[in-house]
């Protein structure tokens, strides 16, 4: 990855009567524009996200999605759907005076990248995606009900602890009740447990520092509430919509590189493989020694290689 850099411009963009987005620009002012779509939903951006791109070639656009990071109001679920975010990306592009840009996203960022590209294919130069997630019921079931629980049983035990045994038949729905509780202690305990489960399972080698991030109440509250809100609503999409042939046909012409960890249990490789089957034109890299995180060496190396190769387009 490229060395850390600071933004040359930060700003706020009001996208509705309720929501205002934080955005920042770094790299080359007149460079090739790229927009980074963060994960979660609800995760927000991190300064290290700028380092996937050559700052001498790219105009790097980062922004925090509704309710996330430095965007306001924090952790808000109102007017917060996939299609609201797609519209926000277009508003930001128009606000910045950009005609077309590269789109980069991992995990939920890959979901949003596909949804945006399928809605506005004429505005997307290339796609660089990681840890493909299309929000199908089968994907949510594997991670939140039965699947990843068999691989991380000790972390799973902590995840289910806040939920009464009688309610564990649908963990996403059970957490929805607690994450929207009017009791702060109930809500924050659930938010920390929900977030800790994902931090535990995101790397091939468990990263204690990443797991500890779940103890940040403000960050966990936004991350868990917004994620759960999207998941309990099936992403506000038809099941499997992003993989439907008529949707892929809209973006088939767009150069696309996918980087997928072989041992990703958050967004297992089966979804990236399903995307490759319906869209054989993409380049799919399976990293043999990686899990879900974009920070793992084999994954970050291939992501940077892809952005380097696309810098001239």
TrEMBL record:
Instruction: Please list the GO biological process terms of this entry.
Output: proteolysis
Provide the catalytic activity annotation: Release of N-terminal proline from a peptide
Name a single GO cellular component: cytoplasm
Sorted keywords for this record are: Aminopeptidase, Cytoplasm, Hydrolase, Protease
Q: What class of enzyme is it?
A: hydrolase
Please give the Gene Ontology molecular function terms for this protein: aminopeptidase activity
Q: Which residues form the signal peptide?
A: none
What residues make up the catalytic site?
107, 264, 292
Where in the cell is the protein located?
Cytoplasm
Similarity remark: Belongs to the peptidase S33 family.
PANTHER family registered for this protein in UniProt: PROLINE IMINOPEPTIDASE
The protein depicted here goes by the name Proline iminopeptidase
Lineage of the species this protein comes from: Eukaryota, Fungi, Dikarya, Basidiomycota, Agaricomycotina
């Amino acid at each position: 990855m490229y060395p850390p850099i600071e933004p040359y411009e930060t700003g706020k963009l009001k996208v509705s009567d309720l929501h205002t987005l934080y955005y920042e620009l770094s790299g080359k002012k007149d460079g090739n524009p790229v927009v980074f779509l963060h994960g979660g939903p609800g995760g927000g951006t991190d300064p290290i996200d700028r380092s996937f791109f050559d700052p001498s070639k790219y105009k790097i656009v980062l922004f925090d999605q509704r309710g996330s990071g430095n965007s306001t109001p924090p952790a808000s679920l109102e007017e917060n759907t996939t299609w609201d975010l797609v519209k926000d990306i277009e508003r930001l592009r128009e606000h910045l005076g950009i005609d077309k840009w590269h789109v980069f996203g991992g995990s939920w960022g890959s979901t949003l990248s596909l949804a945006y590209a399928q809605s506005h294919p004429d505005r997307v130069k290339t796609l660089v995606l990681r840890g493909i997630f299309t929000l199908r019921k089968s994907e949510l079931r594997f991670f939140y009900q039965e699947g990843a629980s068999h691989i991380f049983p000790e972390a799973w035990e902590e995840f289910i602890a806040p939920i009464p045994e009688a309610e564990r038949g649908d963990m996403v729905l059970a957490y929805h009740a607690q994450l929207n509780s009017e009791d702060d202690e109930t809500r924050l305990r659930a938010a920390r447990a929900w977030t800790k489960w994902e931090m535990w399972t995101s790397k091939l080698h468990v990263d204690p520092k990443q797991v500890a991030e779940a103890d940040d109440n403000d960050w966990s509250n936004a991350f868990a509430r917004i994620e759960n809100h999207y998941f309990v609503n099936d992403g506000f999409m038809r099941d499997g919509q992003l993989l439907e042939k008529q949707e892929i046909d809209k973006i088939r012409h767009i150069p696309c590189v996918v980087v997928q960890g072989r041992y990703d249990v958050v967004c297992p490789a089966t979804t990236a493989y399903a995307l490759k089957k319906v869209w054989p034109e993409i380049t799919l890299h399976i990293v043999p020694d990686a899990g879900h995180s974009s920070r793992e060496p084999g994954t970050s190396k291939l992501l940077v290689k892809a952005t380097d190769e696309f810098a001239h387009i």
